[in-house]
Design a protein that fits this description.
18% strand; seven-stranded mixed beta sheet; 47% helix; disordered N terminus; five-stranded parallel beta sheet; 412 residues; alpha/beta
Length: 412
């Protein structure tokens, strides 16, 4: 009997369990206030999507748009990296204050590569693993950019550099590489035309940095200059971080009667030392240089030794657009530091990127397509068009250091 009772109790418990599992929970009705909130949210979202659809831009859905910066925030080119960072920060602050990109806030991830190609490579691998990054801003130098081509290309991530000037770089990225500065080919064509057509000179000595960028400038200039009947009668190279230039400059001094113009291709630190030492040696030839020297730091370093030096660049102390002057005032007021060509090029490029993002949202392929379609965009000082290969068309003009400032060059 005890066994029979135990079996009966067990059977009853099993039946009860199955009945419990099969029972549906009672639905609880939401309070009226919650219903109204949900209805309002739905109407708001629908309205936002409708407006986005009308403008052709994607709805933001409260997301952020992320840019990964890779550049020299410390190291030998820290000055340039600082100007790039400040220009990006100012532009991002402005666009976010105006409501972002279709309602999405722009966010920047800062990666310091010290302009060391090994560091740049590590940063590139890291960034390419981050799916929430829409595009990369950088790298800074040609050497770093060339070291990362295959990494970015394999990841199919858009790359926008405000400074890489290697003529071939943009064509290596399957249409996903863009730049905000003139290429070495464009620059050197401007240089050759200016020297021969405007200055009326045909004999040049050239002193350039031993790097991918320096070699590219030398090769492209010789090609463009000789094609117009000019001649580089003497040339030499110097090392990055070199401090003493006297041995090389002494040879330029010996050959001073053979050339009419001294073409210096250098960045801030080396150019400052080289110019001061060449003037001390008595080399009085007019110096022509690249726009990387358009910086107050350079003017302070060379002082009177820089008087008469000519640069081909994008702006001077006067004759600029109202948009440029407002940006200059905002930048210098915020950072208590003068603008330079890298801050200028960075601002033009980041604003073009924002314009493309209005169409693409967080879609990489749509961003690439939108970048290629930029035509006659109002830049800081000129209309901007992105060429088919990702290069940016912007005119260069000659400026001269006069009374410690960059003034418009005029033919005497």
């Amino acid at each position: 009997m005890k066994k029979l009772l135990a079996l009966l109790l067990s059977a009853m418990m099993v039946v009860s369990c199955f009945a419990g599992c099969g029972e549906k929970p009672k639905e609880t009705e939401a309070p009226e206030s919650k219903k109204e909130e949900s209805k309002a949210e739905g109407e708001s979202k629908a309205e936002g999507e409708s407006k986005a659809a009308e403008s052709g831009a994607p709805a933001a859905d409260g997301e952020t748009i992320k840019i990964a910066y890779i550049g020299p925030l410390t190291g030998n080119y820290e000055t340039y990296g600082r100007h790039q960072r400040q220009a990006i920060e100012l532009a991002v602050e402005k666009v976010n204050a105006e409501g972002g990109i279709n309602g999405a806030m722009v966010e920047v991830e800062w990666n310091d590569d010290k302009s060391d190609p090994n560091e740049t490579t590590n940063m590139a691998y890291k960034v390419c693993d981050e799916e929430d990054v829409l595009t990369v801003f950088g790298p800074f130098t040609t050497t770093s950019a060339l070291a990362t081509v295959d990494i970015f290309k394999d990841a199919q991530i858009p790359v926008c550099s405000g400074s890489v000037s290697n003529a071939d770089w943009s064509g290596l990225g399957d249409g996903r590489f863009f730049r905000g500065d003139a290429t070495t080919q464009q620059m050197c064509t401007y240089f050759a035309d200016f020297i021969i057509d405007e200055m009326g000179l045909t004999k040049v000595a050239m002193y350039y940095e031993q790097s991918d960028w320096g070699q590219g400038m030398y090769d492209e200039f010789v090609k463009a200059f000789t094609a117009k009947g000019g001649e580089v009668v003497y040339q030499d190279i110097f090392q990055i971080d070199q401090k003493d230039f006297n041995a090389s400059l002494s040879k330029f001094k010996e050959k001073e009667d053979e050339y009419d113009l001294f073409f210096l291709v250098a960045h801030l630190n080396e150019a400052s030392l080289a110019v001061n030492q060449m003037r001390k040696l008595g080399i009085d030839k007019t110096i022509l240089s690249n726009n990387s020297l358009q910086d107050q730091v350079y003017l302070d370093n060379v002082g009177d030794n820089g008087e008469g030096q000519i640069l081909l660049t994008y702006f001077g102390n006067e004759g600029n657009s109202d948009v440029f002057e407002q940006w200059k005032s905002d930048y210098e007021g915020k950072y208590n530091e003068n603008i330079d060509s890298h801050a200028f090029n960075t601002t033009d490029l980041i604003n073009v990127m924002f314009e493309a993002m209005k169409v693409s949202g967080n879609d990489r392929e749509a961003f690439v397509k939108a970048m290629h379609e930029i035509q006659d965009y109002d830049g800081l000082n000129a209309k901007i068009t992105m060429e088919e290969n990702g290069d940016m068309t912007k005119p260069l003009s000659p400026f001269v250091i006069k009374d410690g400032q960059f003034a418009a060059w005029t033919k005497e």
